[in-house]
Amino acid sequence: MGVILDTNGLSAAAEGDPALEPILRGAVQLAVPVIVLGEFWYGIHRSRHRTEYEAWLTEALSDVRILRVDEETAQWYASIRRELRRRGRPIPANDLWIAALARQHELPILSRDRHFDAVPRLKRIGW
């Protein structure tokens, strides 16, 4: 099974969180949305450990699939946003794009953010 890493999942991997090891080892493929990369790079630019995180990310990205937003993603985004608005359960805009990519590629999301649980037909893997 493949899995999409949310920003907090990518951050936990960068920190070497031992709770992630069995999840990451069991994944056939790891995917990182371009949105997550933007959030992570923002964090790197603010970190006093910038050089270490840049080196880690460069190495880590050689083994993951980068998910980019396209027209199909935009359609998923609109559908999910409509569903959540109808239910009165909005989620942050960046997470809507991540959820859209997860639905588009039929992959679960590795995240601590429970608001992903409000997205119908989306599986969140927590740790």
Question: How would you summarize this macromolecular structure in one to three sentences?
Answer:
The chain has 127 residues and is α/β, with parallel strands linked by helices. The longest helix has 17 residues.
Total count of domains: 1
What's the architecture in CATH terms?
3-Layer(aba) Sandwich
The first-level CATH class is given as Alpha Beta
The strands making up the biggest β-sheet line up spatially as 3-2-1-4-5
Question: What is the β-strand count?
Answer: 5
CATH topology: Rossmann fold
- Distance separating the two termini: 17 Å
Structure description:
It is a single chain. By secondary structure, the chain is α/β, with parallel strands linked by helices. The chain has one domain: 5'-nuclease (Rossmann fold). It contains six helices and five strands, in the order βααβααβααββ. It has helices at 7-14, 21-26, 34-46, 50-61, 71-87, 93-105, and strands at residues 2-5, 29-33, 65-67, 109-110, 124-125. A five-stranded parallel sheet has the order 3-2-1-4-5. The longest helix has 17 residues, at 71-87. The chain is globular, with a radius of gyration of 14 Å. The model has no long low-confidence stretch (mean pLDDT 96).
